[in-house]
Amino acid sequence: MSRKLGALVLAMGILVGAMGIKTLLSAKMTGTTMMANGPAPIPWPPR
Asked: What is the pLDDT of residue 39?
């Protein structure tokens, strides 16, 4: 059981590390923005 758990922890660590590196690299690049809205236009704030 501990072997399987160790493999799972190792795989999760690699996955989290890769996601962190991707986030850091995408934040350093200029001209890239995170778009939660997709290609839709940004809605105007209520007046």
From this structure: 66
